[in-house]
Amino acid sequence: MNQKFQGKVAIVTGASKGIGAAVAKSLAAGGAALVINYASSQTDAEAVVAMIKDAGGRAIAVKGDVSIKREAQAIVDTAVSKFGRLDILVNNAGIYSFSALEGVTEEHFHKIFNINVLGLLFMTQAAVGKMHEGGSIINIGASITTMMPPGSSVYSASKSAVETITGVLAKELGSKKIRVNAVNPGPTETEGSSQMGGGTGSSLVAQTPLGRLGKPEDMAKAVSFLASEDAGWITGEILVASGGLR
Predict the structure, then answer these.
(1) pLDDT tens digits along 110-151
(2) Active site residue: 38, 98, 122, 155, which one?
(3) What is the phi-psi region of residue 172: left when phi exceeds 0, alpha when psi lies from -120 to 50, beta otherwise?
């Protein structure tokens, strides 16, 4: 087994299912100790922890709303208290919700931006205080920023912000030898993909050069690469994992 993350500690936010769960399992398979963050799905989070432990890994589930600063800090503090250090942060927690222009409300806007953008900033802020040289932060964006489908104005804007923040923080944190990159998944087969309505069906498959939707494991491999020393000279980059769909 390739233990490229042996001795390292990782936090994956929103890791109770979907892409986050796949990322956590991939990092654990590489030897990392995992903090599985969740906001409400404790049963699912504990199931991910159990799978990692059954495979011989180390993991704990930690509840926390990343958009609340003190809870973001508590997630990081728990990771360091339990495992002694922090090397990798994957900002995966996010809300996926579409609304046509006439349906956009203050609640809709702030709910998405609070988790997708503010939560990412709070988690990174907390993590940077505990990371040493060689730390890696991977933000989960979305390839929707180049597709721009109708009804996605707020969600797409939040993920465009993720791209910009990734570039800015790569420059801010470079002096600390902390790398910051992003993975932008294309349409992916997850528990939440049904929220896209007809968008995840045959029409998207037909537009994808590789002829299928993505799987959480596809995104996990991309994240694991960016978190590893193989990507040690890469920072401020957006890796689009969409099977060629643009």
Answers:
(1) 999 999 999 999 999 999 999 989 999 999 999 988 888 888
(2) 155
(3) alpha
